[in-house]
Amino acid sequence: MSVVKILKSFRNVAVVGVSANGDKPSNVVFRYLMVQGYNVIPVNPTIDEVLGKKCYASLSAIPEKIDVVDISADPKIFRRLWMKRSKLGRKLSGCKKVLSINPLPKS
Predict the structure, then answer these.
(1) What distance in Å separates the CA atoms of residue 104 and residue 84, rounded to the nearest whole number?
(2) Domain range list for the chain
(3) Residue 15 and residue 42: Cα distance in Å, rounded?
(4) CA-CA distance, 3 to 24, in Å (whole number)?
(5) Is the dihedral of CA 99, 61, 37, 104 positive or negative?
(6) How far apart are CA 74 and CA 28, in angstroms?
(7) In this predicted model, what pLDDT tens digit does every residue of 21-68 receive, in sequence order?
(8) Cβ–Cβ under 8 Å, residues 99 and 66
(9) What is the DSSP secondary-structure string of 55-99?
(10) Rg of the chain over CA atoms, in angstroms?
(11) What three-state secondary structure class fits 26?
């Protein structure tokens, strides 16, 4: 399934590693999806909210269904998430696709 088909089919997108800094790529992606009408769910344990939306510390803390996961994080965070995927199985059982994996270098 192409990214375009995924975005046309699903509405709930968790953005892992989103930043509150508007100049960071993860925030740009988050903002774009929000403006396009997606239910964007920020995931970052170090911040409370992004653009007025409550930020969750982890994927497992999100109370609603997740259709798509966008990961914009340090490679170490991505590896940790990948290793925990079996524990997240139920939470992600309805997840159709990991939209993109954008490991970002540490700044």
Answers:
(1) 19
(2) 3-101
(3) 5
(4) 22
(5) negative
(6) 17
(7) 999 888 998 999 999 999 999 999 999 999 999 999 988 899 988 888
(8) no
(9) PBSSGGG--S---EEEE-S-HHHHHHHHHTTTTTTTTTTT--EEE
(10) 13
(11) helix
Task: Quick: pLDDT tens for 57-73.
Answer: 988 899 988 888 888 76
Q: How far is CA 64 from CA 24, 27, 28, 50, 95, in A?
A: 26, 21, 23, 17, 11
Write out the two tokens for 23.
Answer: 């100049």
Q: Which residue has the tokens 């911040």?
A: 47
Q: Which helix (H) or strand (E) holds 11?
A: none
Q: How far is CA 101 from the centre of its chain?
A: 10
> What CA–CA distance (Å, rounded) separates 36 from 68?
15
| Structure-token pair, residue 69 | 């996961």
* CATH 3.40.50.720 is right for the domain spanning 3-101: yes
Pair of tokens at residue 76:
């170490």
